[in-house]
Design goal:
5 helices
């Protein structure tokens, strides 16, 4: 008896179960129109070119050296150099050295935002919350996750995910398909009662 009284006196400090909290968050809105739908492009602004990156052919009289490999910036096909240069601040690079090591890096993998076929990176990239990511790094690892299925908010046709999403009251994100599924479950539960 004494143990039962102690258990009744102790407040339940445990948070609600995840499913209950999610259903409650979705239950605050009775219609799907109450929470606006967004596309994944509103999260991840895809880009295809480097800002402020222009390459040029240096004047042979200048005898510029690459800040990465320290070789002269001249056309050297045998060593894989096109002879084009890129300026970054006061430094000058072979175009190839810039793409390999001096360009802005991906915030997830650390490789430059250029194609890296050896690790299946296409060179397409975008920005999310002020940081740059390869499309592949964002899509599979670094993007924000759905609070229902825990997959990244991105279009995934193989799993019937369009990439559309909604933001809930607690600022968590949810795929449109997961949102509709949860609303359907809630409706079925209400009809059963």
């Amino acid at each position: 008896q004494q143990q039962q009284q102690q258990q009744q006196q102790q407040p339940n400090d445990l948070p609600p179960a995840y499913e209950t909290a999610l259903v409650d968050a979705l239950g605050k809105e009775n219609t799907s129109e109450a929470i606006p739908t967004h596309t994944f492009r509103e999260i991840f602004q895809q880009k295809t070119h480097m800002p402020n990156m222009t390459h040029f052919t240096p004047d042979p009289k200048e005898k510029l050296r690459c800040a990465s490999c320290f070789d002269p910036i001249v056309c050297d096909v045998a060593h894989g150099f096109s002879g084009l240069a890129v300026a970054k601040g006061i430094s000058r690079y072979h175009l190839e050295c810039y793409e390999r090591s001096a360009a802005p890096p991906c915030a997830h993998c650390g490789r430059t935002l250029f194609p890296h076929p050896e690790v299946n990176l296409s060179g397409l990239w975008g920005e999310f919350r002020g940081r740059n990511y390869h499309v592949e790094c964002f899509q599979y690892y670094a993007g924000p996750r759905c609070c229902s299925c825990f997959n990244i908010i991105f279009a995934d046709p193989q799993n019937n995910i369009s990439g559309a999403w909604r933001s809930l009251d607690d600022n968590s994100l949810i795929h449109e398909e997961c949102f509709q599924r949860r609303l359907q479950i809630k409706r079925e539960q209400e009809e059963a009662v």
